[in-house]
Q: What sequence folds into this?
């Protein structure tokens, strides 16, 4: 269940007697460390109150598309981007039909259209409704769309009939939700990832650094671990918890990051991802004591830091080497130059001119370029972008 730690689960509840089990599901998800936000259809509100779900989840429950108060707190598009998984439990026959045919006629259906996250449904309905040819046709459409189907189970139903159509128990749903995050593309591989800024000391109290929070690199480390890799995360000074199953090496200066990376490559790694915003220069001299204010001007002489990712790409034990490029203009052209000059296998570039992607944001959007191809990963949470990038890396690495 550790795969659900910190995962953002958007729980959609549709109308049906099994809606009461959604209350227990919220608790179970939170118990294993997931963050939960609840969206209810009008039908669901007939069976269980939004207040109950709000009290359990600790967050306002979203029920309508055109609610200015809810939109002001977290708009529906924001909610769609926020989710790592959209889980609909229970999913009624009516909702399955609407989802299969791409309707956007209420908040939950619209969110499903707007999200880039995986969608899973736990159907719950009368056994005759489940067996009906329309429902079964819709099921096929949903499976073809890549929507994950949890259950349904079989047994005696609230209506007194016996058969398939019961919603799975919350613990079974929890288990299957955890498996959504278990994609073993990099099993047995050692992935080394750099993250965060570096900090170049001027004197004991001052330094040169940049705005990197480490979020992108840490999300990649988590995604690589979930893909089955052994992960070493070489992190600059950031304030983030270490993702589970990840070995973390903390460094401060670029030269320390260089040493840690070279050691990891020397020991053997299969994939190297340079997400860190490494300071290109460092002060030539670090003063032993705090520099005192005296003259009108002081001059700082800087010397170039080693280029870590380029050195990794030149190493005799060269892993599959992926760089990042943070650009504010001519984003793709500059990234292509770095791909060639640093002799990389792949580069992921982000436009960091705005505040909604790149440095310190929870979201990102990337153009990933490799010799002979590219792929755009549109705006999504860093967790989702990381998962998509790790999938791309795994495919290119195996080619
Ligand atoms: O940490 P976050 O707040 O989540 O922000 C994420 C990010 C914006 C930092 C990340 O998405 C990103 O773009 N990282 C690369 C930042 C950067 O330094 O780009 P660059 O274009 O200057 O460097 C190109 C590549 O060379 C990068 O892979 C960098 O790690 C590497 N490099 C740069 C200099 C150096 N001395 N050694 C290096 O290895």
A:
């Amino acid at each position: 269940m550790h795969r659900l730690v910190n995962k953002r689960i958007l729980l959609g509840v549709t109308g049906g007697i099994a809606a009461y089990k959604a209350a227990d599901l919220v608790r179970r998800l939170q118990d294993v460390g997931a963050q939960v936000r609840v969206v209810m259809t009008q039908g669901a509100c007939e069976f269980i109150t939004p207040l109950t779900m709000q009290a359990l989840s600790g967050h306002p429950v979203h029920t309508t598309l055109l609610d200015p108060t809810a939109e002001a707190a977290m708009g529906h598009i924001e909610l769609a981007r926020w989710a790592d998984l959209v889980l609909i439990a229970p999913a009624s026959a009516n909702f399955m039909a609407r989802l299969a045919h791409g309707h956007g006629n209420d908040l939950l259906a619209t969110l499903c259209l707007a999200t880039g996250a995986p969608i899973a449904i736990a159907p719950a309905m009368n056994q005759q409704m489940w067996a009906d040819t329309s429902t079964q046709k819709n099921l096929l459409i949903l499976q073809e769309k890549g929507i994950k189907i949890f259950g349904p189970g079989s047994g005696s139903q609230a209506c007194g009939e016996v058969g398939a159509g019961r919603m799975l128990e919350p613990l079974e749903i929890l288990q299957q939700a955890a498996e959504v995050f278990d994609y073993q593309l990099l099993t047995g591989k050692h992935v080394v990832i750099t993250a965060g800024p570096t900090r170049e000391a001027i004197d004991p109290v001052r330094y040169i650094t940049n705005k990197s929070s480490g979020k992108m690199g840490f999300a990649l480390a988590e995604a690589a671990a979930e893909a089955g890799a052994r992960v070493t995360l070489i992190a600059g000074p950031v304030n983030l918890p270490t993702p589970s199953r990840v070995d973390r090496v903390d460094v401060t200066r670029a030269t320390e990051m260089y040493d840690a990376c070279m050691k990891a490559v020397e020991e053997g790694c299969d994939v190297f991802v340079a997400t860190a915003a490494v300071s290109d220069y460092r002060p030539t001299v670090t003063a032993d004591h705090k520099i005192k204010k005296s003259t009108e001007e002081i001059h700082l002489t800087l010397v170039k830091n080693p280029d870590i990712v380029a050195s990794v790409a030149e190493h005799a034990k060269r892993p599959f080497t992926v760089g990042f490029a943070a650009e504010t203009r001519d984003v793709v052209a500059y990234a292509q130059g770095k791909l060639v000059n640093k002799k990389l296998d792949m580069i992921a570039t982000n436009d960091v001119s705005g505040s909604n992607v790149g440095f310190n944001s929870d979201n990102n959007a990337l153009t990933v370029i490799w010799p002979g191809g590219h792929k755009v990963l549109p705006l999504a949470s860093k967790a989702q972008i990381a998962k998509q990038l790790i999938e791309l890396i795994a495919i290119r690495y195996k080619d």
